[in-house]
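Practice problem: predict the structure.
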Amino acid sequence: MTAGLLLLAAGTVPFAAGLVIITYLLPSPTGTSAGLATTLALVVGSLLPWVSYQRLALFGNGYLRSSVAQKWEEVGISAPAATFVGFSPGEELRVWEGETDQDVGYLELADGVLIYHGDSFSWSLRRENIGSIEPMDEPGAPQRIVVHWHKPGQSGRAFTLASREANTLRGAQQATRALYDALGQWYAAGSSAGVIPTLGSPPTTLAGSIPVEKLPTGACLSILSVVVITVLMAWYTAQQFIGRGFYYHAVLWAALIVVTAMIFISYFLSYLQAAEVRTSQPNMT
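Answer:
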């Protein structure tokens, strides 16, 4: 919620500030200075949400990292060489209540075995049970690693990983590429594991998630409704100022309305996805 409010502020404050400046702080709301202030507000308002999202997408990552580490240290498990990662079953990008990770935890590349201690579960996986380790090939998708694995006599399975050894999206992408290289070297080494922890296999159930590209039920109609309302509001508001000769006010008010609607649509879609996941889960009572 905090990250959402900060992102909303990043998208709207530049335009609101521009309106305050040209209305109350400049001698003329239609002069050259007002034009420069409007241009600056448009530039900052266009760039600031993207920059903020890069830094806010992993908001709270540091707390999660220390929380999971403390949880396992309390039971005598410490892996200083492990990497903090996000884990998700399946080989496609999925959404788990608004997140692309089902769980977060520490991944250790031990001698011939992967060992994972997470917030919700733990698992271990021998190298000989891994078929391949590949980068996720989805243009525009967050950087992730696909691990294909199997059990003897059973069909192949998969899960994806993303390094969370960073506090920004760009840093996380770089860290995930570094983890992919480390996994490749570990896999190529081919060491055989001795005695390993009896932690079970990686979870495979996809219950509680939906593919990220799947639009929730009713999303198209909802988005269309919001777009129509936004266009009408922006047009009507701008016309009020244009009719009085306040063109810069018209531009800033229209931009403020459009950006607010875009951020609202993004979070509304996340809400619909989470709601669809909850309603699709079987009732266990």
